[in-house]
Queue: 2 jobs
Job 1
Amino acid sequence: MSLTEFPQDLLLEVANQLDIGDLVNFLSLCRVIRELQLHRILWLNALARIKTVELQPLPVSNLQELSLAQLQRTARQTARLLTNFKSESPRPTHIRSFSIEPDQEMMCIPGTSLLVTSNIGIVSCWDITTAQRVAHLELADLRLQIKASCVEPEGKVLIPGRIGRSFLSMRNLTVVCVDFRDRASITISHTISRATTKELDYFPHSHFFLDSRVLGFCTKTSIISWGLDSDGEINVKAQENCCPPSTPTPRCLLFGKRLYMLHKGASLERVAIYSVPFWPAIDRQTNAIDDALEPPISTVLPLPYPPFPDLEQLLIAQGFSSRSYHSDHVSVPEFGIFAVTCTDLARTKAVIHFWPGSIDTALGMLSFEPSCVYGHPDMIDIIAVGSWGTYVAFIAHEVPTDESMPGADAPYLGLLHFSPTPSPHTTFRKLDVGDASLSNFYDLDFDESLGLVVVADNLGNLTAISYV
C-alpha cells in the first residue's frame, strides 16, 4: 500500500506531527499529499507547533482570524525564516535604507513592519516597507521610554513616559498610544496624569513598568504609579529595599497582583528578584486583601560565568565603575524566559544571561530558575532583545591587540538564540549584512517574528535588514 492510498485523515495526522520545514517538503511529494494544504486545520496545527514546539514567535497573535491563504503565507514565511536563522551564515533577503531625525530611540512593533521612533517632544510611526512616516505627535517636554512599551493584542502599543523640562524633572506621567488597527489610518494619541503635588525623586535611568492598567517606576524607597486616567493622581507607595543602596534602579515587570524587580546590582556573584504585592489604585478599592498580608518574596540566583581562559584576570579587572550595563530586558515568560541581561567584562568580552521563568497559573505568580550563560569573545556594543526573550541581536567588535590585523575591530551583527531543549543552550551566528554599514550606530532594534533588524546611526540614517 503506497502512501497516496492512505485515508486523508490519516495523512493529516502524519502531517500534524512534522516540523514546519519537514511539512513543506512533505506537501511537495505528490498531488494527493499536496491537496492536504487546502485544509485549514493543517496550517493551524503547523503554526501552533511552530510556537509551542520550535518556540518561534509568530507575527500574528490570533490565528483564528486569518484566512486559509494568510495561514499558508504565515507558515511558509516562518519556515523560510527558521531555515535562514539555522544556517551557518544567515543572509539578508532585502535591505532598505531611509532617513529619520537624528538621535531617535526606536522600537519595532512585532509582526507589523512598523517602527516607532522618539526623541524629546516628538514621537513618530514609520512603515518600513514604504519608508514613509504614517503618524506623528508633538508634545512639549515629552520624554518616552520607548523600549518599555506594551503591545496590546487588539492592535495598539502603549509607550510609557513623563513630562519634564529637564533630564531629572517630572511634572506628569504620560502614556502614548499608537493605534495601528487600521493600517490606512494609524493614529498616535496621549493621556497625561495630573501634575505631581510634590517633588518626586526621579533617577535618569529609572525603568518604567507598564501594562493596560498602570504605569509606574521604582525609586530608592517607594513605588510610583498612575492608573492611566487623565483625572487620576500619581500614587506613592512606600516600599523598603526597592533599590538596595549603591545599585541602579531595577527593571520591573507587573504580573497579576505582584511587581517583580530584577536587581543585577554591583555583585559579580548573584542577582536578586524581588516580588512585592502591588495593585493599581483602582484595584485596591475593590480588593479586600491588604498589601500587608502579602509579604515580599526574594529569589537570589547565582551569576555564572563562561569558562574564559582569562576569566580570573577579567573579574579582578572588573569593577562597578568600569563595568558598563546594557539595558536589561524583562517580560512575561510566555516562551520560558523572564529576563535577559548583558554585562561587559573589562570592556574586552561580554556575558549574556538568559533567566528562565514560568507561570504558576494557580497562584497567579512567576517562578524562576538559574540562568543559561553565553560568553562572547568580543566586546558587545549594543543589544536588542526580541519581545519574547529567546533571541538577542547585537553589534559587537573585536578589541584590537598588537597582533590584530587591520580592520579587525570593524563592527559586526550577531544573533544569539536560546533553546530550552533538549537541555538549555544557546546558539550564536554572525549575520551577513550585505552592503549595509554598521558604523556610527546610535540605536538597534529587532523583531524576531519577522526576522527584521533595524539599525540607526547618529546622523539619522536608518537601515532595515530583513532575513525572511
Job 2
Amino acid sequence: MIRDKLKFNLLIVLVGLFLVGFFFSYIGLPSITGHAVVDGISKTKVSNLILEKDTKDYDLIYERQKAEDWIDSLKKSNNGGPGWIVVNDAPDTYHGYVYDNAMAIIAYTMSGDYSNAKDILNFLKLHQTEDGAFYDMMYTNGVSENGARHSGNQAWTLYAIAFYMYETGDFGASNSYLLMAEDTAAWLIERQESDGGITGGIGSFSGNELAWTSTEHNIDSYFAFKLFYYLPTKFSSLSFNTDYLSAMNECKRWILDEGWNYYENRFNRGENDPYKSLDTQTLGSLFLADINETIMQYDVINFAQINLHDTTSRTVGTNNVYYEGFKENEYGNHWLEGTMQMSTSYIRRGLPGYGRLYLDEVIKSDDPAYTLGHPNEDNDGDGGKQYYMEGPVIGEQPGTVLWMIFAINEYLNDREKIFFSTPFSLYDLNCDGEVNLADTGIFSSAFHDSTPDYNEGSTYFCSDYSHDGELTLADVSLFYQGFSGNGFSEENNCCVTIFE
C-alpha cells in the first residue's frame, strides 16, 4: 500500500511538472521549432543574452548616447529659427518629417533634454496649419511640397506634445503647447466616424480627405488621446475633457472590432485590409499590453516572428555579414526601424532576451570596422542607422535611431518608456455607457479610513484617494486598482460587484 501511495504521489508530481512546463512554454517564448523561427535564434542564445545583461548594459548606454548625439546633429534651423530634425540622406538634407520630430521630442524628454524638445515644439507651434494639423513633411522654413497631413502623424505629434507636458508640467508660454495640442486633438476627432475609426487624413494641398482607415493610425490616436486626457490626474490646474476619453474609447472599439483579424489572431493593416504589415503588429502589441490583453499580445508577437521574421546578408568590404530582423510586410525589405519596434514589443512582453538580440543586430549595422560599400550605407560608426538593409531607401534615417533609443530605454528600464501605462484605468461604474464624474458616486465612504467588510453585491462610494482635495475620476481609478485584488470583479466592462 505504501508503495502504491508513493507511485501515486510520483505520478502527481510528474503531471504537475508537465503542466508547469506546458504553461511556461506557452507564455514564455515564441515557438522555435519547425518553421516558426528562422535558423539562428535559439532559446540558448536568448538565455545567454539574459545572463549577460548586467555586464553588457554599458554597451547599450554608450550606443544610446551615440544615437542621441547623431540625432542632435540632424537638427537644423532656418535663419536662427526653431530647430527641425531633417533627413540625413543627400540631396534632401533640409527636409524633415513630423513623425520623426514627434519621436525626437519624446526621446529628448525621456533623457531630460527639455531644451531641445522645446526647440522642436516651438517649430511645430510656428508652423501648425490653420485647421490644427501639421504637414507630414516640412523644410526648415516650414514649407511643404504637397500639403499631406496623415492622421497617424498628427496622433504621434499630439502624443509627443502631451508626453512633454506630462513629464515637465510645462504647457508653453501662455499655454501655447496645451492650445496646440487641443487644436490637433480637435482635428483628429473631426475625422472619427460612427464606427469609432479615425480616417486617413488629408492627402494634399487641395484638401482631399482620405477615406480609408488605418489600424496603425488608430493605435497611435488611442495612445495620444489617452495621455492627453490624463494630464489633469497629474496637474490639478487642468480640467478633464471627456471628449478625449470618448475619442480614446472609440479608437479602442474600432481597433478591436475592425482592426483585429479573428481568423489569424493578428491585426489587419486597416479596415477590410488583411495585408500582413509589421507595424500594426508591433504597435498593436503595445496597445494590447496597455489594455491587459496578454494572450492577444502574445499572438501578434508570435505572428510577426513566424511570418515577418527575416534574415539577410550583404557583403561589406571583404566580409559577408548576416542580420536577423524583420521585414516591413510579407513582401518587403529587411526593415531596421520595424526591427527596433519588435525589440520594444518583446521587452514589453517580458522577453528581454529577444529584445536584446534584435538590438544587437541593428547596432552592428553601424560597425566602422567594416569597409564602406554603397556611399549611403551605414558603416561609419557615427551612430546613425539605415532604414532598410536593402532596397531604395538604405540611407541613415532618424526613425530607426529613435526607435532604437526607445528599445534601449525599455531594456535598461532607466527612463520613461514609449506608450507607458498611465496611472489610472477608468470604468463605467454606473452602467450609463460613459465614463465620467458620475461614476465617483458608486462607492461607499466606508473605504475612507479602514478596510470594510466585503458584502456580496454591495457597492460603495469613493473617497479622495489622490489627496488633491477633490473627488474625481482619478479617485475612482485608484480605488478600483487598490482593491481589485481583494475580491472585485468587473462584468461586461460595467458595474463592479463585491463577492466573498
